[in-house]
Amino acid sequence: MTEKAVILLSGGLDSATCLAIAKSQGYECYTLGFDYGQRHNAELGAAIRVAQAMSDHEHKVIRLNLDAIGGSALTDDSIQVPTGDQTQGDDIPVTYVPARNTVFLSIALGYAEVVGANHLFIGANAVDYSGYPDCRPEFIEAFERLANVATKAGVEGQGIRIHAPLMKMSKAEISKTGTQLGVDYSLTITCYQADEQGRACGECEACQLRRDGFQQAGLVDPTKYR
Fold first, then answer.
1. What average pLDDT does the structure give for the chain?
2. Nearest Cα residue to 47 out of 132, 123, 112, 106
3. Which residues of the chain fall short of a pLDDT of 50?
4. Contact by Cβ (8 Å): 61, 10
5. Considering only CA atoms, which of 125, 146, 99, 138 is closest in space to residue 209?
6. Is 217 helix (H, G, I), strand (E, B) or coil?
7. CA–CA separation, 220 vs 100, rounded Å?
8. Can you spell out the DSSP letters for 94-157?
9. What is the pLDDT of residue 71?
10. For position 195, what pLDDT does the model report?
11. Quick one: pLDDT at residue 85?
12. What kind of architecture, by CATH, is found in domain 4-217?
């Protein structure tokens, strides 16, 4: 019997590639996204497009209000999104959203139990986003341990696996992998401040990493820039 998996799908380069990897491994895929008050909410439409093209089931969107607590350039308009050469050294970037992946994986864990999935996929990446504490192997390993003591599936069932297949991949490797798996990256958005038409700013860190990754991979980036 085909195993089921819940895929965290934001609509960007990483999550779309993550979905493609899960499908290539034979999983029946349920995609899950979050409308959490992010300023780059154009990604919500991108996630729907990607899911329609690749997922086995209708894309589910959970509404949260992480902007109610703020603390990130992505959820608080008073904090500027860094652009250009604005680097922050070894500090955690202001684009880090407090506890975001912990919250997302917790809800995905509940959804997985409802649909009978024992696998969760997240596009966490420690190579390009090493400043985010919830994008590290240690976090994924710790959450998997939690999942297996906090759920019926973990205690009475087959257990829960958390997959982060992109963890040690560069953006070039990610874009190459997705291309080989048939991902249509023109459906995706990877920008911290895309406009309502889904056009990327071309200046934020997310845009720079994506553009550089495609260039290093020798691929054409289909991103629409404003």
1. 93
2. 123
3. none
4. no
5. 125
6. helix
7. 31
8. TTPPTTHHHHHHHHHHHHHHHHT--EEE----TTT-TT-GGGSHHHHHHHHHHHHHHSHHHHTS
9. 94
10. 87
11. 57
12. 3-Layer(aba) Sandwich (3.40)
